[in-house]
Specification:
Strand content: under 5%
Number of domains: 2
Oligomer: single chain
Order of helices and strands: HHHHHHEEHEHHHE
Shape: globular
Number of helices: 10
Radius of gyration: 20 Å
Length: 290
Protein backbone atom coordinates (compact mmCIF):
# COMPACT_ATOMS: atom_id res chain seq x y z
CA UNK A 1 0.00 0.00 0.00
CA UNK A 2 1.44 3.44 -0.93
CA UNK A 3 2.72 5.58 1.92
CA UNK A 4 0.66 8.71 2.70
CA UNK A 5 2.24 12.04 1.84
CA UNK A 6 3.08 12.95 5.46
CA UNK A 7 4.79 9.59 6.02
CA UNK A 8 6.90 10.14 2.90
CA UNK A 9 7.92 13.57 4.15
CA UNK A 10 8.93 12.22 7.57
CA UNK A 11 10.85 9.30 6.06
CA UNK A 12 12.75 11.60 3.72
CA UNK A 13 13.58 13.98 6.59
CA UNK A 14 14.84 11.12 8.77
CA UNK A 15 17.26 10.10 6.02
CA UNK A 16 18.20 13.51 4.60
CA UNK A 17 18.82 15.58 7.73
CA UNK A 18 21.62 13.40 9.16
CA UNK A 19 23.26 13.26 5.71
CA UNK A 20 23.20 17.04 5.41
CA UNK A 21 24.49 17.63 8.94
CA UNK A 22 27.27 15.08 8.44
CA UNK A 23 28.35 16.68 5.15
CA UNK A 24 28.35 20.13 6.74
CA UNK A 25 30.40 18.92 9.72
CA UNK A 26 32.93 17.04 7.58
CA UNK A 27 33.11 19.95 5.14
CA UNK A 28 35.65 19.88 2.31
CA UNK A 29 34.89 17.44 -0.48
CA UNK A 30 31.80 16.06 1.25
CA UNK A 31 30.12 19.45 1.49
CA UNK A 32 31.20 20.48 -2.02
CA UNK A 33 29.79 17.23 -3.44
CA UNK A 34 26.47 17.68 -1.61
CA UNK A 35 26.16 21.24 -2.90
CA UNK A 36 27.15 20.13 -6.39
CA UNK A 37 24.48 17.43 -6.54
CA UNK A 38 21.80 19.75 -5.16
CA UNK A 39 22.79 22.53 -7.56
CA UNK A 40 22.82 20.25 -10.60
CA UNK A 41 19.41 18.76 -9.81
CA UNK A 42 17.92 22.18 -9.10
CA UNK A 43 19.30 23.58 -12.36
CA UNK A 44 17.87 20.63 -14.28
CA UNK A 45 14.46 21.28 -12.72
CA UNK A 46 14.68 24.98 -13.50
CA UNK A 47 15.45 24.17 -17.13
CA UNK A 48 12.40 21.91 -17.06
CA UNK A 49 10.24 24.79 -15.79
CA UNK A 50 11.69 27.06 -18.46
CA UNK A 51 10.82 24.61 -21.24
CA UNK A 52 7.26 24.42 -19.94
CA UNK A 53 7.14 28.23 -20.04
CA UNK A 54 8.15 28.26 -23.71
CA UNK A 55 11.92 28.76 -23.50
CA UNK A 56 14.61 26.46 -24.87
CA UNK A 57 17.51 26.60 -22.40
CA UNK A 58 20.68 24.56 -22.75
CA UNK A 59 19.62 22.10 -20.06
CA UNK A 60 22.78 20.00 -20.14
CA UNK A 61 25.04 23.04 -19.89
CA UNK A 62 22.98 24.49 -17.06
CA UNK A 63 23.01 21.23 -15.11
CA UNK A 64 26.75 20.63 -15.54
CA UNK A 65 27.77 24.23 -14.85
CA UNK A 66 25.60 24.52 -11.74
CA UNK A 67 27.05 21.27 -10.40
CA UNK A 68 30.62 22.31 -11.09
CA UNK A 69 30.29 25.76 -9.52
CA UNK A 70 30.40 24.67 -5.84
CA UNK A 71 33.37 22.43 -6.68
CA UNK A 72 35.12 25.38 -8.34
CA UNK A 73 34.43 27.48 -5.26
CA UNK A 74 35.99 24.80 -3.04
CA UNK A 75 39.03 24.71 -5.31
CA UNK A 76 39.31 28.47 -5.24
CA UNK A 77 39.00 28.67 -1.45
CA UNK A 78 41.64 25.97 -0.91
CA UNK A 79 43.97 27.42 -3.56
CA UNK A 80 43.82 24.30 -5.73
CA UNK A 81 42.01 26.18 -8.46
CA UNK A 82 44.03 29.21 -9.52
CA UNK A 83 41.89 31.15 -12.05
CA UNK A 84 39.60 33.74 -10.45
CA UNK A 85 35.94 32.74 -10.44
CA UNK A 86 35.01 35.94 -12.23
CA UNK A 87 37.18 34.93 -15.19
CA UNK A 88 35.60 31.48 -15.18
CA UNK A 89 32.15 33.07 -15.23
CA UNK A 90 32.98 35.13 -18.28
CA UNK A 91 34.31 32.05 -20.06
CA UNK A 92 31.04 30.24 -19.38
CA UNK A 93 29.14 33.25 -20.73
CA UNK A 94 31.24 33.30 -23.90
CA UNK A 95 30.71 29.56 -24.33
CA UNK A 96 26.95 30.08 -24.12
CA UNK A 97 27.08 32.78 -26.77
CA UNK A 98 29.11 30.48 -29.00
CA UNK A 99 26.62 27.65 -28.45
CA UNK A 100 23.80 29.94 -29.59
CA UNK A 101 25.39 30.08 -33.05
CA UNK A 102 25.32 26.31 -33.54
CA UNK A 103 22.42 25.05 -31.43
CA UNK A 104 19.64 27.66 -31.68
CA UNK A 105 18.13 29.06 -34.85
CA UNK A 106 16.85 32.67 -34.82
CA UNK A 107 13.24 31.46 -34.43
CA UNK A 108 14.25 29.46 -31.31
CA UNK A 109 14.90 32.63 -29.29
CA UNK A 110 18.67 32.12 -28.83
CA UNK A 111 19.03 35.15 -26.56
CA UNK A 112 16.33 33.84 -24.24
CA UNK A 113 17.92 30.38 -24.29
CA UNK A 114 21.31 31.72 -23.23
CA UNK A 115 19.82 34.08 -20.63
CA UNK A 116 17.70 31.39 -19.00
CA UNK A 117 20.64 28.97 -18.98
CA UNK A 118 22.91 31.47 -17.25
CA UNK A 119 20.13 32.38 -14.82
CA UNK A 120 19.64 28.72 -13.92
CA UNK A 121 23.34 28.36 -13.08
CA UNK A 122 23.49 31.49 -10.91
CA UNK A 123 20.10 30.89 -9.25
CA UNK A 124 21.08 27.37 -8.14
CA UNK A 125 24.82 26.71 -8.06
CA UNK A 126 25.69 30.37 -7.58
CA UNK A 127 23.53 30.83 -4.50
CA UNK A 128 24.25 27.45 -2.91
CA UNK A 129 27.99 28.03 -3.27
CA UNK A 130 27.67 30.63 -0.52
CA UNK A 131 27.05 27.69 1.83
CA UNK A 132 30.67 26.68 1.38
CA UNK A 133 31.69 30.23 2.17
CA UNK A 134 29.65 30.13 5.38
CA UNK A 135 31.17 26.80 6.43
CA UNK A 136 34.65 28.29 6.00
CA UNK A 137 33.84 31.83 7.06
CA UNK A 138 36.72 34.03 8.17
CA UNK A 139 35.59 33.66 11.80
CA UNK A 140 35.42 29.87 11.85
CA UNK A 141 38.06 28.16 13.94
CA UNK A 142 36.71 24.61 14.02
CA UNK A 143 34.24 22.22 12.41
CA UNK A 144 31.76 23.08 15.15
CA UNK A 145 32.04 26.80 14.41
CA UNK A 146 31.63 26.37 10.67
CA UNK A 147 28.69 24.03 11.14
CA UNK A 148 27.02 26.43 13.57
CA UNK A 149 27.32 29.31 11.10
CA UNK A 150 25.99 27.35 8.12
CA UNK A 151 23.14 25.76 10.07
CA UNK A 152 21.99 29.21 11.25
CA UNK A 153 20.16 30.16 7.99
CA UNK A 154 18.88 26.58 7.66
CA UNK A 155 17.26 26.78 11.10
CA UNK A 156 15.87 30.26 10.49
CA UNK A 157 14.38 29.13 7.17
CA UNK A 158 12.80 26.03 8.70
CA UNK A 159 11.37 28.03 11.62
CA UNK A 160 10.04 30.69 9.23
CA UNK A 161 8.31 28.11 7.01
CA UNK A 162 6.86 26.18 9.94
CA UNK A 163 5.65 29.20 11.91
CA UNK A 164 4.24 30.85 8.79
CA UNK A 165 2.24 27.70 8.02
CA UNK A 166 0.68 27.43 11.47
CA UNK A 167 0.16 31.19 11.88
CA UNK A 168 -1.49 31.31 8.49
CA UNK A 169 -3.77 28.40 9.36
CA UNK A 170 -4.75 29.97 12.68
CA UNK A 171 -4.94 33.68 11.88
CA UNK A 172 -4.61 34.07 8.11
CA UNK A 173 -7.11 36.50 6.58
CA UNK A 174 -5.32 38.75 4.09
CA UNK A 175 -3.61 37.19 1.08
CA UNK A 176 0.07 38.04 0.76
CA UNK A 177 0.50 37.66 -3.02
CA UNK A 178 -2.59 35.85 -4.36
CA UNK A 179 -1.45 35.88 -7.99
CA UNK A 180 1.81 34.13 -7.04
CA UNK A 181 0.94 31.92 -4.04
CA UNK A 182 -2.78 31.93 -3.15
CA UNK A 183 -2.32 30.03 0.12
CA UNK A 184 0.12 32.45 1.75
CA UNK A 185 -1.21 35.19 4.01
CA UNK A 186 0.13 38.37 5.54
CA UNK A 187 -0.52 36.99 9.02
CA UNK A 188 1.41 33.82 8.20
CA UNK A 189 4.37 35.81 6.89
CA UNK A 190 4.41 37.95 10.04
CA UNK A 191 4.18 34.85 12.24
CA UNK A 192 7.17 33.34 10.47
CA UNK A 193 9.08 36.60 10.83
CA UNK A 194 8.46 36.93 14.58
CA UNK A 195 9.35 33.29 15.22
CA UNK A 196 12.59 33.66 13.24
CA UNK A 197 13.59 36.72 15.24
CA UNK A 198 13.10 34.91 18.54
CA UNK A 199 14.90 31.77 17.39
CA UNK A 200 17.82 33.83 16.02
CA UNK A 201 18.32 35.35 19.46
CA UNK A 202 18.15 31.93 21.12
CA UNK A 203 20.42 30.32 18.54
CA UNK A 204 23.02 32.99 19.16
CA UNK A 205 22.97 32.36 22.91
CA UNK A 206 22.79 28.57 22.95
CA UNK A 207 24.58 27.54 19.75
CA UNK A 208 26.84 30.24 18.32
CA UNK A 209 28.42 31.25 21.62
CA UNK A 210 29.24 27.76 22.95
CA UNK A 211 29.96 26.07 19.60
CA UNK A 212 31.64 28.86 17.63
CA UNK A 213 32.80 31.34 20.30
CA UNK A 214 30.87 33.97 18.37
CA UNK A 215 28.17 36.31 19.63
CA UNK A 216 25.91 39.10 18.40
CA UNK A 217 24.38 41.93 20.32
CA UNK A 218 20.75 40.99 21.07
CA UNK A 219 19.28 43.64 18.78
CA UNK A 220 21.67 42.59 16.01
CA UNK A 221 20.73 38.92 16.41
CA UNK A 222 17.05 39.78 16.13
CA UNK A 223 17.60 41.97 13.07
CA UNK A 224 19.76 39.32 11.39
CA UNK A 225 17.04 36.75 12.02
CA UNK A 226 14.46 39.10 10.53
CA UNK A 227 16.57 39.77 7.43
CA UNK A 228 17.19 36.07 6.77
CA UNK A 229 13.52 35.28 7.37
CA UNK A 230 12.45 37.92 4.85
CA UNK A 231 15.02 36.62 2.34
CA UNK A 232 13.71 33.07 2.82
CA UNK A 233 10.11 34.13 2.26
CA UNK A 234 11.05 36.09 -0.86
CA UNK A 235 12.89 33.00 -2.15
CA UNK A 236 9.80 30.89 -1.60
CA UNK A 237 7.64 33.38 -3.50
CA UNK A 238 10.19 33.69 -6.30
CA UNK A 239 10.07 29.97 -7.02
CA UNK A 240 6.27 30.04 -6.87
CA UNK A 241 6.35 32.76 -9.52
CA UNK A 242 8.53 30.61 -11.77
CA UNK A 243 6.19 27.64 -11.36
CA UNK A 244 3.19 29.87 -12.07
CA UNK A 245 4.69 30.97 -15.36
CA UNK A 246 5.43 27.35 -16.26
CA UNK A 247 1.95 26.22 -15.17
CA UNK A 248 3.38 23.52 -12.89
CA UNK A 249 2.57 22.67 -9.27
CA UNK A 250 5.95 21.08 -8.43
CA UNK A 251 9.35 21.49 -10.04
CA UNK A 252 9.61 17.67 -10.28
CA UNK A 253 8.81 14.52 -8.31
CA UNK A 254 12.39 13.67 -7.34
CA UNK A 255 11.76 13.86 -3.58
CA UNK A 256 8.92 11.66 -2.27
CA UNK A 257 6.24 13.76 -0.63
CA UNK A 258 8.11 17.02 -1.26
CA UNK A 259 8.11 17.57 -5.01
CA UNK A 260 11.46 18.62 -6.41
CA UNK A 261 14.80 19.95 -5.24
CA UNK A 262 13.78 23.49 -6.21
CA UNK A 263 10.67 23.13 -4.06
CA UNK A 264 12.77 22.18 -1.02
CA UNK A 265 15.60 24.67 -1.50
CA UNK A 266 13.70 27.69 -2.85
CA UNK A 267 13.97 29.65 0.40
CA UNK A 268 17.63 28.73 0.91
CA UNK A 269 18.62 30.14 -2.49
CA UNK A 270 17.98 33.55 -0.91
CA UNK A 271 18.60 32.86 2.78
CA UNK A 272 22.13 31.43 2.47
CA UNK A 273 23.63 34.34 0.46
CA UNK A 274 21.84 36.79 2.78
CA UNK A 275 23.39 35.11 5.83
CA UNK A 276 26.85 35.15 4.24
CA UNK A 277 26.53 38.86 3.47
CA UNK A 278 25.28 39.74 6.95
CA UNK A 279 27.95 37.69 8.73
CA UNK A 280 30.63 39.44 6.69
CA UNK A 281 29.52 42.92 7.77
CA UNK A 282 31.71 44.55 10.43
CA UNK A 283 30.56 44.21 14.06
CA UNK A 284 27.80 41.70 13.33
CA UNK A 285 29.70 38.72 14.68
CA UNK A 286 31.75 39.36 17.80
CA UNK A 287 34.44 36.83 18.84
CA UNK A 288 33.97 35.64 22.40
CA UNK A 289 37.14 35.62 24.48
CA UNK A 290 37.14 32.68 26.87
Amino acid sequence: MPLPNLAKRILFAVVAIPVVIAAVWIGGDALALLLAVASALAAWELARLARAAGYAPFAGAATASAGLLPIAVRGYVTGAFAPPLLSLGFMVLLALVAAMLFRRAPDQRPLGAAAVTLFAVLYTGGTLSFAYGLRYHMYTISAAAGTALLVFPLVITWVTDTAAFFAGRAFGRRKLMPTVSPQKTVEGALGGLVAAMLVAWGYMLWVLVPAASLAMRPVVAVLVGAAISIAAQVGDLAESLLKREAGMKDSSQLIPGHGGVLDRLDSLFFAIPAAFFLFTLPSVLIPVVR
